[in-house]
Design goal:
Layout lengths: L1 H6 L13 H11 L3 E4 L8 H11 L4 E6 L5 H4 L5 E5 L4 H18 L2
Parallel strand pairs: 1-2, 2-3
Helix pairs in contact: 2-3
């Protein structure tokens, strides 16, 4: 469902879909996106672990954690430049999230 909503956002370019945290980390290093939408619970490496590892290399990289577990919100807050969306994703919340990220980029000049 999230992928469908993201595909509707013409200002976003989707570079891939990854179900494994290690694969996610490797692909991010190759593609160097501005924003990563990821789950927190993933095999081999959590989304939070991947984010922290990647932000050492790409300090401005932004993350949006998408999960069905509301108690993960506090864990997600440990990652700089991050947002949190609860599954099932509400399209209006996704719109607000994307607008917030665009505003941050506009403010920072990236």
């Amino acid at each position: 469902m999230l992928a469908y909503f993201l595909l509707e956002k013409k200002e976003l370019e989707i570079i891939g879909y990854y179900a494994d945290g290690s694969e996610l980390a490797n692909e991010i290093k190759k593609h160097k996106p501005d924003v990563v939408f990821t789950d927190i619970s993933m095999p081999s490496m959590s989304g939070v672990e991947a984010a922290k590892q990647l932000q050492k290399v790409f300090p401005g990289l932004r993350f949006v954690f998408v999960t069905a577990h509301s108690h993960f919100r506090e864990i997600a807050k440990t990652v700089n430049n991050s947002e949190f969306l609860l599954k099932p994703v509400d399209p209006e919340e996704l719109d607000i999230c994307v607008e917030n990220i665009k505003a941050e980029y506009a403010k920072s000049g990236d």
